[in-house]
């Protein structure tokens, strides 16, 4: 049985004052029936780890190399040292802004896993790809190229995030979410076998809010959510976590 996961991605939002939201979240969910992960900007990782009290903390990216001349980058070991237990990799914003390829995402995931971090690997189609009927083809290609061969339920989480649903208020139909999540589970089963595939959590991401969370969490093979905007305030993220716990 997969334990549900509510993951928050603060993206490039938040200074020290935002840690009050994390503290409030921890206060409201001291014994959660689902795993909770918050991924703040790297500048807040250490302080977030102190404020989190039971909530896991994650980074939003890491370099594939352990150290070296890579100005501005952070290694998996650095994230771990700052208190992270997970890292988001291959988010569509990084794929778009920094040209990250599936192979690069895979190398980063291998580096994260080698440090004992859980890799939250993001995939998802653009609107043009959906409208041309290529959603599953894109999802399958990204999954195959971005997920390392040593993936397990302990070191890997997959987040399906349609690019057109991120920060737009647009959400796929529940049937569309189910189609992709069922497909991803089948692809993982074909590659890793049922035992491993059944242990890897599949998150949905893209305009998840308190008002739509429960119906999304009822969808086949949805094991939680990767939440952007609605993870910034405890008042928004908390009811999403509660909906997940009840699902
Ligand atoms: O990583 C989170 C996703 O990009 C979703 O963002 P959003 O909830 O603001 O649409």
From TrEMBL:
Involved in the gluconeogenesis. Catalyzes stereospecifically the conversion of dihydroxyacetone phosphate (DHAP) to D-glyceraldehyde-3-phosphate (G3P). It catalyses: L-erythrulose 1-phosphate = D-erythrulose 4-phosphate; D-glyceraldehyde 3-phosphate = dihydroxyacetone phosphate. It comes from Leisingera aquaemixtae. Substrate binds at residues 9-11, 167, 207, 228-229. This is Triosephosphate isomerase. Transmembrane segments: none annotated. The keyword Acetylation does not apply. The lineage of its organism: Bacteria, Pseudomonadati, Pseudomonadota, Alphaproteobacteria, Rhodobacterales. Pathway: Carbohydrate metabolism; erythritol degradation; Carbohydrate biosynthesis; gluconeogenesis; Carbohydrate degradation; glycolysis; D-glyceraldehyde 3-phosphate from glycerone phosphate: step 1/1. Its EC number is 5.3.1.1.
